[in-house]
Design goal:
Elements (H helix, E strand, L loop, with lengths): L5 E3 L2 E3 L6 E6 L2 E10 L3 H20 L2 H16 L2 H12 L3 H24 L3 E3 L6 E9 L2 E5 L7 H12 L3 E5 L6 H12 L7 E3 L4 H10 L3 E7 L2 H11 L5 E5 L4 E5 L5 H13 L9 E7 H17 L18 H16 L3 E4 L14 E4 L6 H4 L6 E7 L2 H9 L3 E2 L1 E5 L3 H10 L4 E4 L15 E2 L10 H7 L1 E9 L2
Parallel strand pairs: 7-8, 7-10, 8-9, 10-11, 12-13, 12-18, 13-16, 15-16, 18-19
Antiparallel strand pairs: 1-2, 3-4, 5-6, 6-21, 14-15, 17-20
Helix pairs in contact: 1-7, 2-4, 2-6, 3-4, 4-5, 9-10
The structure holds NADP nicotinamide-adenine-dinucleotide phosphate (NAP).
NADP nicotinamide-adenine-dinucleotide phosphate (NAP) binds next to helix 7 and helix 8.
């Protein structure tokens, strides 16, 4: 099993503790994927110091020069897509196809944000006095901290890091403990592309050990976090006193509304892709289906039948359509929610148990008879579990859609433009889809959640990411 080291100041550095965690394939528990450092505060301090030292020179480079390096990183990853995808599957469990899409996404993100180096400008404004030049530019913030979850071990680090870097910031990243290997592999590509020492630093280890020290360090000028509401909410209390710019993207409880007029085959397909794709381990995964009572029985039967047909197994095995939960604890959470739903009076019509295999497999699960006040209707599961809630009309459907603490993504399946417009106007979520799965985002579009799904002030990807990782400077030059 390969032993990885922290990436600090352009070097591969042993953790001061000398300890490592062993990452195992969640679909094949006897297969080791790699050993990742269990770092301490000393390692983190070195990483922040390296990023702070590298900042002036990196910020001082012409932006297109920074963009060229990101293009090189994209080329390096693109040259090894299949190998990276296989490693991603071994580490996180998603299928080869899903992993490949994630690697391709990482390449696209590097290219997209590399391009911003040539595009981001400022404004030239009319001055109040003659012979005066009044303009504004975007400048970097300094050293930024990036904290990422385990479900997209490559693309989430990239969608934060690429805009941060191209805008001239330097980075300290702390990836999730469950999946640190892809982030460390990414460090290798950045190194090979010629990124100057210290511009990116990666320290792996427990968020409980490193988190506070990272986000409260006065050298850190911004924090970009993706993860659970509980951790994000606590983190915000730590950054607020320093007024440090903080971006939080958190959980979801994403609904699909199936209108009475919906094409049922299309609706089932949208729910299967959104709910069981990526093993339901996406912040945008479908976890509630809100269906008109007139079609509920037929729809539920078809969704249950489709769920039962999904082939569950190791993501690198041909024909497998859904991989395992990432860990024993995530599998146990998935199954505990099924039990809670049953105790509260709902009915499991597909799955609901572990699936066979030497890994953390869970069967795609469909639960009917869910009421909007049940825990299965309110709390994020983060697994392949869909609850079906019946409603009497579109007004009730939209009320149920909005009746949760989260607001990340929501879909309606309908052929009636009036339903689509009403949904677009009234649904409370940062991303709304008509006749598309709740999961799936475009890198050029703003991405982020309402309510407890996000801190809301900024958006990720597209222009929002550039805005988060820069501040505006306004310049008045009197030419008299
Ligand atoms: P998590 O437990 O909140 O962890 C996220 C990151 O925070 C990990 O790197 C974790 O480190 C770190 N962390 C833990 N304690 C910390 C502390 N005290 N201070 C600072 N950082 C700390 O989330 P997860 O289980 O990895 O990911 C699943 C969650 O992410 C779900 O809620 C999902 O909806 C959400 N998510 C949201 C989006 C989005 O864009 N909205 C995208 C993907 C996932 P350790 O791993 O070492 O604990």
């Amino acid at each position: 099993m390969q032993t990885y080291r922290n990436y600090i100041g352009g070097d591969w550095v042993e953790p001061s503790s000398g300890n490592y965690s062993e990452i195992r394939n969640p679909a094949q528990l006897d297969e080791g994927v790699g050993r990742a450092p269990l770092s301490g505060i000393v390692d983190l301090d070195q990483a922040i110091a390296a990023a702070a030292a590298a900042f002036p020179a990196w910020a001082g480079r012409a932006a297109p020069e920074r963009g060229r390096i990101l293009h090189k990183v994209a080329n390096i990853i693109e040259g090894q897509i299949d190998a990276w995808a296989a490693e991603l599957t071994r580490e996180e469990g998603k299928t080869r196809t899903e992993a490949r899409m994630e690697v391709v996404r990482a390449v696209e993100l590097f290219r997209y944000f590399a391009g911003e180096a040539w595009r981001v400008g400022g404004d030239v404004l009319p001055a109040d006095t003659p012979n005066t030049l009044l303009y504004s530019v975007r400048v970097p913030l300094g050293v930024v901290a990036i904290i990422t979850p385990w479900n997209f071990p490559l693309s989430i680090p990239v969608w934060k890091m690429a805009p941060a870097l191209v805008m001239g910031n330097t980075v300290v990243i702390k990836p999730a403990s469950a999946t640190p290997i892809m982030a460390l592999r990414l460090m290798g590509a950045l190194h090979e592309a010629g990124l100057p020492a210290g511009v990116v630093n990666c320290v792996t280890g427990s968020g409980g050990v490193l988190g506070d020290a990272l986000v409260t360090d006065t050298r850190i000028k911004a924090v970009s976090f993706t993860g659970s509401y509980a951790i994000g909410h606590a983190l915000y209390q730590k950054t607020a006193p320093r007024l440090v710019r903080t971006h939080l993207e958190m959980g979801g409880k994403n609904p699909v509304i199936v209108a009475a007029d919906a094409d049922l085959d299309k609706a089932v397909n949208i729910c299967v892709r959104g709910g069981f794709g990526l093993t339901g381990q996406a912040c945008t995964a479908t976890s509630r289906v809100i269906v008109d009572r007139s079609i509920a029985q037929e729809f539920s039967a078809r969704l249950a039948a489709a769920a039962q047909k999904i082939v569950v197994g190791p993501g690198l095995t041909d024909g497998v359509q859904m991989g395992p939960a990432v860990s024993a604890s995530q599998r146990d959470i998935d199954l505990a929610f099924v039990e809670i739903a049953s105790e509260e009076g709902a009915t499991v019509v597909a799955g609901g148990t572990a699936a066979e295999g030497y890994g953390y497999f869970v069967k795609p699960t469909v639960i009917t008879g869910v009421r909007r006040d049940m825990r299965i209707a309110q709390e994020e599961v983060f697994g392949p579990v869909i609850g079906i809630i019946e409603v009497g009309d579109m007004a009730e459907a939209i009320a149920v859609c909005n009746d949760v603490a989260y607001g990340l993504s929501a879909t309606i399946v309908t052929n009636d433009v009036r339903n689509s417009i009403r949904f677009a106007e009234q649904a409370e979520a940062g991303m709304l889809k008509v006749n598309q799965p709740t999961a799936g985002v475009s890198i050029q579009a703003p991405f982020g959640g309402f309510k407890q799904s996000g801190s809301g002030m900024f958006r990720e990807m597209g222009k929002g990411a550039v805005e988060f990782f820069t501040q505006q400077k306004t310049i008045y030059i009197d030419g008299q």
